[in-house]
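User: My collaborator sent over this chain with a note saying "see what the structure looks like." That's all I know about it. Can you take a look?
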Amino acid sequence: MGDAHTTPRDHGSSAHLAVDVAVVGAGVAGLATAIQLRRRGRESFVVLERGDDVGGTWRDNTYPGVACDVPAPLYAYTFRPQPAWTHRYARGAQVLEYLRTSAREEGLGPHLRLRTDVIDATWDDDGDGVARAGGRWHVTAVTPDGVLRVSARVLVTAVGRLAEPRTPDVPGLDRFAGPVVHTAHWDAGLDVRGLRVGVVGTGASAVQVVPQLAGVAAQVVVFQRTAPWVVPRQDAEVPAAEREALQRDPGAVRALRAELLAELDAGIAARRRERPALEALRARALEHLASQVPKGPLRRALTPSYEVGCKRVLLSDDFYPALLRPDVHLEPSALARVEPGGAVAGSGERFGLDALVMATGFTTTRPPIAERLHGRGGRSLAQRWAGGMSAYASTAVPGFPNLFLLGGPHAVLGHSSAIDVLEAQVEHVLGALEHLRRLGAGAAPLEVAERTEAAYLREVDAMAAGTVWEDGGCTSWYRDDRSGRLALLWPASAAEFRARNARFDPAAYGTHGAAS
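Assistant: Without extra context I'll predict from the sequence alone. Here is the result:
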């Protein structure tokens, strides 16, 4: 590899680019891939990003209170440690700046194509379904300057799971008289002072934004469909002396990261319903609730009815206290319908409202990019996933030669940082690229076999069996509603994901004939 060429970007109606690797997305995963490609210097590559900046979810999510929900040292690349976090849990703006700095200092500028939205990516098999030697991906993207067409031997998608905000189909929402904002599309000009604000949802973004709105808005009504499990966050500013010591000693940064990762990975025991770990996690959450919310109707409404860990366990020290304020009301039912001047809850309660904040999460198991990716025979990834998401090593899909997915099926952790999973996937991709380089430019493409993916899924299903994610009595975005499979989440530790999936195994891949 490395023999492909690039042509200068055309500012007319159409431009063309030929590279070894095309990466879709410049968030955490896309930048990690690009940095490693840049450091290798063996492949030509381009990063196609629909936004006007790098950063992905950290660029898009700017709502008040946005912050990382894993300890800050775990939310940095292992190959670019960050010793200067100012808080135990990094603020969103700091994470974004870290990603921007990483892109700049790693020299990614010439490889980035911002405001470039991929609308189609098709594998060229001459229409007969045969994955030919020397085959390439043909990517079509729209830019402010026209159409960009990219030809790439390998395609890597890094579009993330938190990229497509989900707004529930609530009757009357389009007739609401006031502003409606999703936490992922926050309006910086929204002034809630003196307004009656409804917040829909009590998930990860809601527990961060509600305390920021409380005391500023005239009233906040929180619509809760399901009570979340919440444990203490115990956030604090990192003393300057501690930050300076870490900056002087890279070994200490690595040791701290390893210690925190092992600590969070130990949490997998509770998710596997192992005792006493499960009881300890449940007791910690219930004690936190009891310490902050007095006995009575509010505490009962905030007590989950499913097993701890079935949904993501949230971290907050100020969510419960915010709900105790006289100007904040918890409505323990979902939003049922919206009227021009207010909303009606599932309980029948009616609330006059001036603004609505949708803290309703994202479209995760049906990513729009799947409609735009076409493999052998023109079949889309969405068609391939019509019965549910799946991928070998959480990274490769039969019928899609030389395509690698980052952050896709079984690539989410329910207890720790996603960085370690994404880095393991990048290692897998780099191994694949090295294998292709050794095979030469005319070699057949890499395509995972159907039987190999099926065997992998059996392994993952076996790991998931008996966990709180499977048997915890809840529904969650981790599960695909089409297959019923725990499709998004890796049901084991970060260390186990790395051991299982980081190494590229050529035996798992083959040509079209081997994959049939």
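A starting point for your reply to your collaborator: The two ends are 27 Å apart (CA to CA).
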